[in-house]
Amino acid sequence: NKQEKIINDKIIKWTQLWIGDAKGIADEYFKDNPSPLISYQLYARYKITNRDDIISFYIDYYQFTGGAHGITNRVAYNIDVATGNELKLEDIFKKDFLYKDVINNEISRQIKKDPDRYFTGKDGFNGINENQNFYIKNKKLVIYFELYEIAPYASGISEFVIPNKIIKENMKYYKV
């Protein structure tokens, strides 16, 4: 299947770049220094979160190369089962739906419930973007932000479950 190969190649490329980056950090640091007291760590794990009209899964790439703590990057994939095409957030909604406004309002509402977890001002939440990270879990849309993107490390990867009642009539995929 052509689409399957495209997505697999994308995953392999991202993973190889990630490994190469960590290897470059190690090579640069250890050329003039002794071996580390704590070994560098890399691991990746995936989680399938939806299997209906859209196959959703993400891969968490964890990297520790010294310092106070490691860092995790989450890369999500959302695939239309019928076509095999990878979906952007806008693809799951009907064309005339102002999905950004609805989602931005909902995320802002959720942040106001626990504002101390998030950065404020220009470093805080300023709306979703064209390539917004998301996945489907338990038939619900989850918008997420990487570590440090809108919140400090201690807050973890920031996830916002968008209630189906505010988007349902405007979805192209009915099992979401």
Shape: flat
Percentage of residues in strands = 25-35%
Radius of gyration: 19 Å
Strand order of the largest sheet: 1-2-3
The succession of helices and strands, N to C, reads HEEEHEEE
Total count of helical runs of at least 4 residues? 2
- Judged by helices, strands and strand pairing, the structural class is alpha+beta
Largest sheet: 3 strands, antiparallel
**Low-confidence region ranges:** none
Q: How many beta strands in the DSSP annotation?
A: 6
**Mean pLDDT, as a whole number?**
93
Helix content class: 25-40%
Distance between the termini: 25 Å
If you had to describe this structure to a student in words, what would you say it looks like?
This protein has 176 residues and is an alpha+beta fold. It has 2 helices and 6 strands; from the N terminus they run αβββαβββ. The chain has helices spanning 2-30, 99-113; strands at 41-51, 54-64, 71-80, 134-137, 140-145, 158-162. The strands form 2 sheets. Strands 1-2-3 form a 3-stranded antiparallel beta sheet, with helices on one face. It is flat. The protein starts with a helix and ends in a 14-residue tail after the last strand.
